[in-house]
Amino acid sequence: MHLSNKKKTFFQCIVLLASILMIVYGISRGEIETVWNKAINICLECIGLG
User: Fold this and answer.
1) pTM for the full predicted model
2) Between vectors from CA 21 to CA 19 and to CA 2, what angle results, nearest 5°?
3) Quick one: which of 15, 44, 46, 31 has its CA closest to 7?
4) In the chain, which residues have pLDDT < 70?
5) For residue 25, what pLDDT is reported?
6) Per-residue H/E/C for the chain
7) Which of the ends of the chain has fewer CB neighbours closer than 10 A, N or C?
8) What's CA 21's distance to the chain center, in Å?
9) Is the dihedral of CA 41, 47, 48, 50 positive or negative?
10) Contact 21, 12 (CB under 8 A)
11) Rounded to a whole number, what is the distance in angstroms from the first to the last CA of the chain?
């Protein structure tokens, strides 16, 4: 399957817009703290400090 440049650019813009909307939605729900805590726990387990 070969897409033309215009279709490829349009698809990339749609995916970028959807990503931005999902990030904004997550921020509005207060998910930053949850993600941050999970990231800290994973890092501490990998390093072996936890």
Assistant:
1) 0.63
2) 40
3) 15
4) 1, 48-50
5) 96
6) CCCCHHHHHHHHHHHHHHHHHHHHHHHHCCHHHHHHHHHHHHHHHHHCCC
7) N
8) 10
9) negative
10) no
11) 48
